[in-house]
Amino acid sequence: MTATRVENSSRQHDRRRLRPLILLGLAIFVLLAFFFSLHQGVLQLSPGEMLRTIFSGEDSVNRQIICGIRLPRNLTAALAGICLALAGAILQGIMRNPLASPNLIGVSAGGGLGAVIVLIVLPQYYLLLVPAAFGGALAATLMIYLLAWKRGIQPMRLVLAGVAVSSLLGAIINALLLFYPDRVVGILDFMVGSLSARSWRQVHLIWPYALGGTILSLLLSRRLNILVLGDAAAVGLGIRVERTRLLLIAVSALLAAAAVSVTGLLGFVGLIAPHMMRLIIGSDYRYLLPSCAMFGAGLLMTCDTLGRIVMPPVELPVGIIMAMLGAPFFLYLLRRKNTA
Amino acid sequence: MKLNITALCAGYGRDNRVIDHLTLTVEEGEIITLIGANGSGKSTLLKTIGRLLPPESGGVYLDGRAVHDWPTGQLAREMAILPQLNSAPDDLSVAELVAYGRYPYRQRWRSSSDHDRAMVRQALQLTHLAALRDRPVATLSGGERQRAWIAMTLAQEPQVLLLDEPTTFLDVCHQLEIIELIGRMNRELGLTIVMVLHDLNLAARCSHRLAAIKDRRIRYLGSAAEIMTPEILRDIFNIQARIITGDDDIPYFIPTASCGGLPHPTHKQESSS
User: Fold this and answer.
1) Which of B92, B132, B154 to mutate to test the interface with A (most CBs of A within 10 A)?
2) Is the CB of residue A152 less than 8 Å away from at least one CB of chain B?
3) Which CATH architecture has domain A20-339?
């Protein structure tokens, strides 16, 4: 008994000292994933050639493929991964619920409904897809927050309101799909989450959110640590709980809405990335948030690349690859933790 | 710092007022324990004092200023709260939890100062947790865990400490341990302590005064010897009790019977009898 206790605490200690190393490792993973995705595809250049193509000013076909197609798609994947993973980590903290993910505050259902309305009912306004998804996601979050409000927000009531509103919006989506069966195929990419044909426009759309959200969430990381202790304890330590929680929900809703409107419904990253990082780096948000951001970016880039190269010329949407690889690995980590 | 509660009304909405024009003065450096039946409003009073609940009218004044008007971070340096329910992540160590007690003193872009570390060390020593500082809080026994949370409140360097049922869920030995710790904090650090306790004998042991709440107000206020009488206990808890005074002049009570059924029988019971 005592022996295992001592071992436990020394292992804890070791992990604390390892945290900077883990962050460094994740940074290397992101870089590797980045160059791997730039490199892989029908056109394969050696690393040296690739760098020369990128930095040479000439307008060649190779440069068009690398800088005009792969690079923006890659950056979109990385930025969406950052947004979704951060949103999930923040939500799991404020809800004190391990199942919390961007889906839970209605981002997926609301964004999905906005996208479905544009793609199916008003296809002539295709350009409105991104703003409609973004607006739908935020509107759903706002609705859930207001429904859950009763002299303050209790996390559990928020979770329940989220489930209820999401199923309502889901029902509306399905009803629309039934009314327009001929147009269902067009929406499929959005529903599973896809990065195909993403260009610099999407990068420009999403990077301000990714950057702002990252900075804000890092500034709020100590407050998140305190909030996890429970509302009463947090008030006792001088936190304005309602205000902080509203701020954090707003940050995560903006992050997730930006990502979802550009990539489609990829909420799964927001569920698994924080869990995996919690197992690896621990639950201190000052380390958890940066590690989630990096892991989310690397994961999405890798999965998207795999989707491009496993069975060419068919491209598998990143959402499918991620779920097929992510879910088993996630389950493996959970089981390993329980037996340890 | 003196804590004044004047004409305080609080509760959960218009139809559910739990405290009605309650007035109480807590002197600097005293331990005062709120006692009363379930639902009498002890916890509500404690929560309102700790600004967890807003008052409907009246107020709670610390050092002459309403606690709900204090900047909350500044108040956290004067008044600490040990909630009844709290949670910690699985991998949070005792030292990390206690260091959160320094949060009200944080400065942006600055890591912890020497004084912060000294206060954490002192809190760990006072609660006898120095040897367990690197253990995850989740792996501690119930008594150790409660001491860790108390250590966190101590690291806040408060003048006033609010404890909501600090001994619930603990076995007898750990209950006494917590009560002794509370006495020590009061004597050595001069802390003013307001707490809710269910165990009257423990309350009598460690409190300077007991405040018995009934009908939304403080019905009785006084030393353990004054409050622990068969008449008052009957009025407050609806029980018959015998009082024994120990060698240390501390009164103990032994409940002998409840006074016939519930104080407010429901209609169903009335009609069947």
Assistant:
1) B92
2) no
3) Orthogonal Bundle (1.10)
The nearest CA of chain B is from the CA of A13 a distance in Å of 7
Full domain range(s) for residue B149: 79-157
Same domain, yes or no, for B5 and B117? no
Sign of CA dihedral A30, A34, A36, A41: positive
- Under an 8 A CB cutoff, do B76 and A232 touch? no
B180 in a domain, yes or no? no
CB contact under 8 Å between B86 and A229, yes or no, is yes
From first to last of its 273 residues, chain B has per-residue pLDDT tens of 889 999 999 988 778 888 889 999 999 999 999 999 888 889 999 999 999 999 999 999 999 899 999 999 999 999 999 998 888 888 899 999 999 999 999 876 677 788 999 999 999 999 999 999 999 999 998 889 999 999 999 999 999 999 999 998 888 999 999 999 999 999 999 999 999 998 899 999 899 999 999 988 999 999 988 999 999 999 998 888 888 887 788 888 888 888 765 555 444 444 433
Contacts of A283 in chain B (CB under 8 A): 89-92
- H or E element, residue A288: helix A285-309
Is B8 a domain residue? Answer: yes
Domain extent listing, chain A = 20-339
Burial B221-238 (b: 16+ CB within 10 A, else e): eeebeebbbeebbeebbe
- B43's CB contacts (< 8 A; 6+ apart) are B84, B164, B165, B196
Q: Inform me whether the C-beta atom of residue A243 falls under 8 Å from chain B C-beta atoms.
A: no
What was the ipTM of the complex prediction?
Answer: 0.88
DSSP A70: I
